[in-house]
Amino acid sequence: MSRASPLPRLPWGRPSMKAVVTAGLLVTMLWNLKCFINSSNISGKAPKHTKPLVVLVWEWPSNQVPNISGDICYELYSIEGCWLTMEQQLLHRADVVVFPHTRLQQGRDKLPREKPPGQNWVWVSLESPTNTKALTGWNQTFNWVMTYRRDSDIFIPYGKLVPNRSATMNIPMKTNLVSWVISNYHRTQKRAEVYKNLSRYLHVNIYGKASKNPLCKDCLLPTTSKSKFYLAFENSIHQDYITEKLWRNSLMAGTVPVVLGPARANYEQFIPADSFIHVDDFSSLAELATFLKTMNSSRYQQFFVWQKKYSVKLYADWRERICTICAMYPSLPQGRVYPNLESWFNS
């Protein structure tokens, strides 16, 4: 009777094929598990919320306080998992507390006396540094800033251009050359000086509270749309400080903005280079005036080419701005505090 041949054995220390496959599967499983954990809780970012994010607005930024009870962010903007409230007694349940600077200028007594662990505080301002008072003393207080500046944690511009496939070029009928709507006129402002010198060379139609021609509530756009050009002059000059004077008063109205504000390159980060005229494009205001007065129809229409691709979106509702916090929350940095708010804002 023949004896069965023994199974061949691998040399000592050399794993079998089965062991290699098993080890490979184990490594793959461990790697997938690590990737899942990392994607669920990225270091320095907010973990995914399984319950609604509670955002407490300590005081509403404007005098008109809306009714924000209910899931307003979802109802208006389709942002899920966000709950806005103004009930200050819910402080200890809030994940984020929003503090508009206009309500803080009276002092620190406007803030809660204590800050619950893990809660993030947001400082909000749409004003420029020139027009923002009482900034000193806000050291080690706020985790995030929410302003018109693009380097803010939460960027809230006054407006923007959005793609519009059905957009067409539409230039309203023009009856005058230049207009300007002004509510607060101060002779010390640069815009006051520029207007005074520019008006020596051409006539400017003035409207608004600081003029002899105040406008009714719904008269702004119908009035400015009749002008070929609009003086979109900012009250102070700071990086990214581009307000409704550009977005609403001129672009939305269908007139060409003549801007006075940050550098042209900064404007071009918001709107096409051929959609506006910058005061700094000219060596003198006399040259600017001549350019405006002698422009032919063909050249004028080129300023409106952007209308074929875009439309203007205004950010005028504070509910939409506050709800932006919920949309951005997962990507906001955790554990960071601004050591000196005044230093950051004035930089």
Question: How would you sum up this structure, described in words?
Answer:
With 347 residues, the chain is α/β, with parallel strands linked by helices. It has two domains: 53-156 and 317-345; 160-313, Rossmann fold (3-Layer(aba) Sandwich). It is 25% helix and 17% strand. The protein is built from ten helices and 13 strands. It has helices spanning 17-40, 72-77, 190-198, 220-224, 244-252, 264-267, 285-293, 297-302, 318-328, 341-345, and strands spanning 53-57, 82-85, 96-100, 120-124, 144-147, 154-155, 159-163, 176-181, 205-207, 227-233, 256-260, 277-278, 310-314. The strands form three sheets. The protein has a six-stranded parallel beta sheet with strand order 2-1-3-4-5-6. It has a five-stranded parallel beta sheet with strand order 9-8-10-11-12. It has a two-stranded antiparallel ribbon with strand order 7-13. It is globular and about 65 Å long.
Number of strands: 13
Order of helices and strands: HEHEEEEEEEHEHEHEHEHHEHH
How far is the N terminus from the C terminus?
96 Å
Instruction: Provide the number of structural domains.
Output: 2
For the record, the CATH class of the largest domain is Alpha Beta
CATH superfamily annotation of the largest domain: Glycosyl transferase family 10, C-terminal domain
Report the β-strand fraction as a percent range: 15-25%
What strand order characterises the main sheet? 2-1-3-4-5-6
Number of helices: 10
Q: Structural class, from helix and strand content?
A: alpha/beta
* Largest sheet, strands/sense/barrel: 6 strands, parallel
Residue windows where pLDDT falls under 50 for at least 5 positions: 1-15, 17-43
- The residue-averaged pLDDT reads 87
Which fold name fills CATH's third level, the topology of the largest domain?
Answer: Rossmann fold
Which percent range fits the helix content?
Answer: 25-40%
